[in-house]
Amino acid sequence: MSKKVAFYTLGCKLNYSETSSIGRMFNQAGYHTVDFIDTPDVFVINTCSVTDNADKKCKKVVKEALKISPNAYVTIVGCYAQLKPKEIAEIPGVDMVLGAAEKFQIVDYITDLTKNPKTLVYNQPVSEVKDFVPGFSFGDRTRTFLKVQDGCDYSCSFCTIPLARGSSRSDTIEHVLEQAMEIAASGVKEIVLTGVNLGDFGIRDGLRQDKFFDLVKALDEVEGINRIRISSIEPNLLTDEIIEFVASSKRFVPHFHIPLQSGSDKILGLMRRRYKRDLYANRVAKIKQVMPGCCIGVDVIVGFPGETREDFIDTYNFLNGLNVSYLHVFTYSERENTLASEMSGVVPGSTRADRSKMLHILSDKKRRAFYDSQLNKTEQVLFEGDIKDGFMHGFTRNYVKVKTKYDPVLVNELKTVLLTKISPDGDVEITESEEILAH
Asked: Residue 51: which pLDDT band, with cuts at 50, 70 and 90?
């Protein structure tokens, strides 16, 4: 009887693509993938370490896993595993910790499911991690997260990602196209491009050999994929040629997620970001000039060391005046071995929480205003397979979340609908037209 393996993923879209690829490795080795609650023989927990909270989540997931299956073999991989293997090894019940390079040989490392008193740790220095390992999520969503880039050569003062994932490196355009065609053949309608610093695509063997724009143009020609979405791209790497190409693209959708982190040039300097806020404002203006209905998401950090009340108000007013659609708000948390953790001007926790709350409220207002601007428009929706209170959901090309009564025939289907009104839960309702009912 084949052994059962279950996975739990913390963190970003890139982690989800890698978990799915690791899952296929287990399947090829004869394991059967099951849900977390189905008493598996092996748990694989893919971790994040962007914030302190992510570390705490890992410990909680291990505890819950062992409640479900006390004798299961528990392996921890991912960014937290690369950064703090010894700390993880002290978590009761963890059997193995694999670093950034080793996680892709996980099946080779798990040769015996015997639980030993001492946790096994395989973790080479991140400076030795030089190979790009491709991956894409599959079989669990109507869209696929396709990994095309890994690592980062930037040195933002708050970030541990370069320490956890190593230097920037990429897949080849040819191999990305092969994977995209494989995904298309499986019936998936949407690909989300993922990476640590996606716009830095093109570095292989330490040398720049392509540009992200080259990949975008090539992917736009792949038959069988209806939508391609760019997960996140740095403002200094989002060029006019990319924006203009997406505006006229056959497959790339009008949706950008662009990290800002702060609307204060002083704080951007302390963060060691590679732009000032004027550049960011110019990127937003350019997008809205050529794609007025484009959805724009923003990452922002509150409570960074040295952020005064005036600096925060500067950020708030800047965001309030920007024509963007929603915010992802992160409360700054100290990370070991970063420059920011040694900076003066530490912001009290309560102040960080207050500032976070203000930006979450602003985000809600921004999303509502964006959704309002899309009402009474006819849009194409890709419906998901989820069910909540008898309703299913989907997204337009420009990332408006819609809801309609559940119908299994609509799952993974693209349908043209009329956006009619915003429901009390914030989603957009659609007209129950003959076009929808007839599928």
From this structure: low
Token couple for 330: 């992160």
> What is the spatial distance between Cα 253 and Cα 146, in angstroms, rounded to a whole number?
16
What residues make up the domain containing 364? 256-374
Query: How large is the average pLDDT for residues 263-287?
Result: 98
Highest-scoring range by mean pLDDT, 142-146, 161-165, 351-355: 351-355
CA 378 from chain centre, in angstroms, equals 28
Question: In Å, how far from its chain's centre is CA 275?
Answer: 22
Whole-angstrom Cα distance, residue 428 to residue 402? Answer: 4
- What mean pLDDT is predicted for residues 105-131? 88
> What is the rounded CA–CA span in Å between residue 283 and residue 130?
32
Q: Which residue has the higher pLDDT, 143 or 371?
A: 371
Residue at which a domain ends, from 347, 374, 401:
374
Residues 299 and 359 in one domain: yes
CB neighbours of residue 32 within 10 Å: 15
**Edge-first strand listing for the sheet containing 143-147:** 135-136, 143-147, 190-194, 227-230
Query: Do the beta carbons of residue 196 and residue 135 sit within 8 Å?
Result: no
Nearest-angstrom CA–CA distance, 192 and 383: 16
Tokens of 117: 């008193």
In this structure, are residues 396 and 384 in contact, taking their beta carbons and an 8 Å threshold? no
Q: Do residues 107 and 160 share a domain?
A: no
Radius of gyration from C-alpha coordinates of the chain: 22
How far apart CA 392 and CA 382 sit, in angstroms, is: 11
Q: Confirm whether pTM is higher than 0.85.
A: yes
Number of independent structural domains in the chain: 4
Asked whether the beta carbons of 22 and 77 are under 8 A apart, the reply is yes
Structure tokens at 130: 């030089």
Tell me if 15 sits within 8 A of 9, measured CB to CB: yes
Q: Which residues, 6 or more positions from 185, have their beta carbon under 8 angstroms from its beta carbon?
A: 224
The 10 Å Cβ neighbour count of residue 217 is: 16
Q: Give me the CATH number covering residue 426.
A: 2.40.50
Q: 261 has which bridge partners?
A: 300
Alpha-carbon distance of 98 to 92, in angstroms, equals: 16
